[in-house]
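Deviations from the work plan: none for this task. Representative record:
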Amino acid sequence: MYVEGSRPDLRVPFAEVELAGDNPPVRLYDTSGPGSDPEVGLPPLRAPWIAGRGDVAPVSGPGTPLAGVRPTQFAYARAGIVTAEMEFVAIREGVEPEVVREEIAAGRAVLPANVNHPEIEPMIIGARFLVKVNANIGTSAVTSSIAEEVDKLTWATRWGADTVMDLSTGKRIHETREAIVRNSAVPIGTVPIYQALEKVDGDPVKLTWEIFRDTVIEQAEQGVDYMTVHAGVLLPYVPLAVDRVTGIVSRGGSIMAAWCLAHHTENFLYTNFAELCEILARYDVTFSLGDGLRPGSIADANDAAQFAELRTLGELTHVAWEHGVQVMIEGPGHVPMHKIKENVDLQQELCSGAPFYTLGPLTTDIAPAYDHITSAIGAAMIGMFGTAMLCYVTPKEHLGLPDRDDVKAGVIAYKIAAHAADLAKGHPGAQAWDDALSKARFEFRWEDQFNLALDPDTARAYHDATLPAAPAKTAHFCSMCGPKFCSMKITQELKDYAAQGMKDKSDEFLSSGSKVYLPVLP
Amino acid sequence: MYVEGSRPDLRVPFAEVELAGDNPPVRLYDTSGPGSDPEVGLPPLRAPWIAGRGDVAPVSGPGTPLAGVRPTQFAYARAGIVTAEMEFVAIREGVEPEVVREEIAAGRAVLPANVNHPEIEPMIIGARFLVKVNANIGTSAVTSSIAEEVDKLTWATRWGADTVMDLSTGKRIHETREAIVRNSAVPIGTVPIYQALEKVDGDPVKLTWEIFRDTVIEQAEQGVDYMTVHAGVLLPYVPLAVDRVTGIVSRGGSIMAAWCLAHHTENFLYTNFAELCEILARYDVTFSLGDGLRPGSIADANDAAQFAELRTLGELTHVAWEHGVQVMIEGPGHVPMHKIKENVDLQQELCSGAPFYTLGPLTTDIAPAYDHITSAIGAAMIGMFGTAMLCYVTPKEHLGLPDRDDVKAGVIAYKIAAHAADLAKGHPGAQAWDDALSKARFEFRWEDQFNLALDPDTARAYHDATLPAAPAKTAHFCSMCGPKFCSMKITQELKDYAAQGMKDKSDEFLSSGSKVYLPVLP
């Protein structure tokens, strides 16, 4: 279902779960989009909003930003303007549009929405809003096809991915990205250095600012909504990572480190950062300032290399803001639980409240094949402490490329982490979902319980595995205890019993100091 | 491999992982036991230790505790005696035997070891030691067979379960338990009220102290190492649970609540607690004081009913200690992240430091079919805060009975949580495992990485899924980036480069105030 905003073309999607009896329906945030035909792409929902602002010249296909204009949500917010995109996310999040505008204007939230990606249903990333989840997809030199990646995109958003990063390497990067952007109702992120590296045959030493810049423009014109840029990997920081257990594990970070060392020159992303800002501003591409020196193991967490880079990202945040560009900051990685909070606190301090976007973190290194779990632990905690978006990790992390099942496993684990964080932060309305499901569980409304589940298909299948018969779906017991031995059934009976005045007796007892039963103990 | 203690029959098992090159082998805690033939059972490792203490009369089969004697590890520890069992766990944990004795004597740790379960390899549960994991198995009225449950036991300990609870209901409870105890190298826990209830045809109202007592004696004679007893579900507390979203979700709790209300009489487990202590003391059965009023939903966490019961469990802890009985305390359940720490702090305070043993907790209710993950998040955190043992939750929780795959999924998720907690607590030696695996990963020693993984089979299978060829196992790249584009490979190259003096330049730069590159930014 849709909730209409102040104009008829502003319709915000929700998934509404109907429940049995007189239980009110539950309305859930919905990332799945209107559904696309890959041959055609999605309808350009935002096209009239963008055109209406008059800062993009209409051409066939995507519009061209007018020269000298910064049509960014950040610039509008600072100018006091509530855009249609801001109103859209306000309805989605259940807050006033002015709250959205304020958070964006303060740099505490980003609304990634390239003027050339009119297909998206706007969403917001910021600590005051629901914690978001990103899913990574993309072809590699070794495997995968374009159709497969578009399918992964649709699959990821069906299960709740709020943004998707296309990390394609190898051949046909441009075509893959075009297919993904045109079919995506969620913001798309990329790491442009990957494509730039392909242009120089995979040799980092041959990279130049010009090749990178042209790649960024190419991707911005296609409609990429946010880009990871490793501008904080500075030449003097590189040696700080050399004695680590796992050195530099970020691909972008290692590419830039290799370039810096080979040329004995400062990172060209850093030295050309102002020009880069101007390019991103023209399309409203959001910066995702990459953590090229993030720790890749428990041993390397919170070390000098990591925090040196974070300090630089804090400086660059202000430069980006001065150019009207939205910014979020990427974070680790591998971090043991007791070192997680320091990451958020320091990032918020050094980066003046810009949204934090973290990969996990994994809380132990010992479980390859289960890193969706090792990292969901860290992700939930870092979300509770204030991280705005969590980049998923799939079971294949460190081992291979995620297939469809891995994408789903990663998204579900991270939706759990994000929702657990929303609950812990006391996000208004977050607990209503839990309460509705728990009430259905307690009342043996099995179908309601399944339909409210993050993954109704699997919940239903697991129930069927033990008690396949249809009557079991309405039974007031389950397979754990069997028909004559159910705690929930007993409690229901207690409720009737208790209604007969037990409450009074209890109050009397408790007010007398609860001592009456102690003497029986020796 | 085994490490021998002060006597030749005291041999402590470890799994030793051999690594390539000159990397030292890694020694891991091993719960898998010596392997048993289900027809015969395990050899009685502890038999000579128990007999040597002279407080158990030898009979064919298990020994009979001598009248009036309390042959408990707690009593020995208080008397200043380091038993063979204590020495065994000291070697397992890498601490001095005196540390083990002190922690047991103070009540801060338990060493569950029924004198009639000589087959176990002793282990310890306490906040100062490695965080432990329990796996629940057991037949139900609806499904499962004895052979299947023994297989689940072996399977659970193979993946790292430190104790196993037999929660059988329905028919053949005694025979099932006998098979499980005789084949278990880990302590076995039960909830005797389940079997007592079977004896009265499933009607809680017909339960009596005498039926319960005889059931406890029957199970103690078989060798059950710890028993859950819901002695804290007091009559006046029951109404406190009536207005909850999910009432009473503990089976034992709801049985006792039903009994209390039906008879208008205080819980017979509470009124006969001293006699129960004397029975448990004779066999050295450890109390696991059950949380019959634990919250079954986020909405009910940390409420009056839960904490009223916890206060009573604190009183009962001291009664048990006075009788020489070891005690641990069970905890929730469903708890949002921000309310987890309060649970541990209050339990430690009210129960004078007795070990905490928690079920999860689940940090959200919305993900049936993934509750091993919702709860691994809570388990890791509560472990970090001081919980000594984590009771696993499988993907089938709330939906059906766990099969073999579910048991493994639950154990692995909880080994991750427990190890993450060990790391966060700074347990000596915990990080060595992570470091060894991360070093292997960084050096592309794929086989070492697999062999060090919690689940080598699945890690290997996932790697094969993308790069099946044997040469890929020795390749200095993986499927994520392909051969010419690997961050770890680049870092290795950086190491050589950096050795040529980059470190000096960096130090010089950093000591100059790191300002040299800032002017290039506008």
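The radius of gyration of chain B is 25 Å.
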